[in-house]
Amino acid sequence: MSRALRFLPLVVMVLIIGALLWRLANPADTIIRSKLEGQPVPAFALPAATPGKPALASADLVTGRPRLLNIFASWCVPCIAEAPVLAELKRRGVAIDAIAVRDRPEDVAQFLVRHGDPFDRIGSDDNSRVQLALGSSGVPESFVVDGKGVIRFQHVGPIEPNQIPDILAELEKAR
Amino acid sequence: MNRLSSFPRKREPSPLRRIWVSAFAGMTILMLSAPAFADSNLPPAQWANRQLPDARQEAAATRLMFEIRCLVCQGQSIADSDAEMAGDMRHLIRTRVAAGENPDAIRTWLVERYGNWISYQPPTAPIGWPLWLAPLLLLGAGLLLIRHRIARRRLK
Predict the structure, then answer these.
(1) From the candidate CATH numbers 3.40.50.720, 3.40.30.10, 3.40.50.620, 3.30.450.200, the one assigned to the domain spanning A45-173
(2) ipTM of the shown complex
(3) Of chain A residues 108-167, which have a CB less than 8 A from chain B?
(4) In terms of pTM, does the model score above 0.90?
């Protein structure tokens, strides 16, 4: 065996350890994104999440102008943190609809009273069926839907106050 | 009597004992408190934890559930997970299998939404070829090495 080949196992080991160290320093992204960006919102028709608030169907999203579709739940703590940001987006003229996941009407009503109601329509998704159809993996999430009902952008997690310009830019792009 | 009272009635607890007591109290509180998973107030979906009446359909659904990855507790299959979303995914799979849908079609439907990540059945796409070929290459290298050694020993 040649002299250079003798060090091959060592080199392989160093490479493996290097790869492991690199992965430790740069943990893999655990966010699962929807693959439906660029595709029409899957057809659905959800009942109203709470009395006095219109129900939500996929056809309601086709309005000729971009809308924000927010996936939330009254039992979701980050959704409370996101509420003022949605209110600010609403104040800036953004049309927002919502899907309440696994929620009870009274809890949704209480959430709206307590944390504000920037939503035009709220559909109730009892078995996360529409959430799964959208490729959403948790609450809260927001989808930018253009005037033709095509998903243009997905935001995973609560929208932070400093991300408002990004969302507005995505809505502008979807115009 | 006098002698007895000269003993201190309460001794200051030692620092070590204090640490033990507070550690024990902390553990007890942790064990008693509910885990802070955000869970809804709704009961599990109808078919989340219930088997389908048709044994063959249930077997097909279960086979698929073991090959679909949980979105919340990544690394578990939805068959193994207690997460609410995994329950809703089992409900979705059982409902659609009961409606006569092919499990492969349901898998495709999920992959369209979440990517190949969602399936534990790796696709035989070009990106996966090295993975399939690596064992064969290693086996071939091993056989070559053995042949080399045997040939060398014969020469001796």
Answers:
(1) 3.40.30.10
(2) 0.88
(3) 126-129, 131-135, 137-139
(4) no
